[in-house]
Amino acid sequence: MKTLFLSFALIMSSFLSFAQIQSATLTASGLTCSMCSKSIFKALEKLASVQSVEVDIDQSVFQIQFKDNAHVQPDDIKKAVTEAGFAIASLHIVARFPKLNLAKDAHNIYAAATYHLLNEGNQAPNGDVAFRIVDKGFVPDAAFKQYKKMTNMHCIETGKLASCCPKDASIGSRVYHILF
Amino acid sequence: MFMILGSSLKAQELFNYSEPASNMPAHSLGIRLTNNILDEKHLGQITHQFLPELMWGVHKNLMLHVEAIANNSETPFRLAGASVYAKYRFYSQDEVHRHFRMAAFARAAYNQGHVHYQEIETNGMNTGAELGFIATQLLHKQALSASFSYEQIGNNGAGNDIHAGNALRALNYSASTGRLILPRRYTSYKQTNLNLMFEVLGQYQPELGLYFVDVAPSIQFIIHSQTRIDIGFRQQMAGDMERMAKRGLMIRLEHLLFAVL
Known about the structure:
A: 5 helices, globular
């Protein structure tokens, strides 16, 4: 029974992860033609968490609205873009945070998701806050090399929590590196 | 003025007579119906070659084609063979509105048609295999692509052996460029795209020292960002080998079904 309860709690906590993400602005790279753009559009539309997608084909920019209380995983967006055959140039997220102090260059666990804030920025978010994910595959390779220098922690390389992380963090789970 | 024109001209990374290094999207299916209307002087006829293909984006880096080969060369219109084609993208450097990509491809073909010609072509004429590389550079205003391949053939099926003395190996190359003419500015997936392309296609047979070089200007319409209509004309500019046709018209219809698998 205890195991069952723990499993339920785990499922609920993973459901809560990124539940507050409202929208995202994606710029894709590696394409110009509308057929290529449409392949990304269709892949994004197919994600269970996506409510709607608006596109500026000329600029390769996709404005994504997520469903209320949807389980939004930024990795799903990356997967949709790369499987369509292209790459992410930038991904800006708008998420709803309660008042929360995020420490710089530390792991901030919030609603079962872990954010590693790399810059000073807005460290006490309240309400809808925009941030950018700068993990590998979410920015061009050359830019990633620069962002990597902003921390000495190994997790920037893998995107996963490692043994150096705070004790309450589950090793191996996803950590998103962000800039406000 | 030039800047305005420049920023509105985009490149086209889909070619008509050659494949780009890019793949089709993963989990997608495509249907491609290629018609070659060939001036087959040896028979004194216009030959119709029909190549229906089913295309599958297996993975972001891997796509597969299965193709049937039919024609009316020397016979009533009939199925002459089939081929399978695989392309694997192994290098990508993507930036906004540009990329440099490289891919390897392979084709294996079976054909039981008559073999009269010195030209080697596993995509439609010979039983054999082809292995090659493609590099494509997409810049904001221009797409350039080059390919190189090695082709090896054997006797065709149904007792149609290669003529004694003909070469069994060929080196192929292609250079392609394409440009989007319309629309000037993308506003919707429903806009019909008009692309112009120019390609150079060549073959060299080291065993006999024979060669040909063709030029192939073509036009491409993309409807609803999903259906392609390609129309091209291929003409030999130089060469010294016996070929099925030194010139031909190509009409192709292609339709993609995105994210259906």
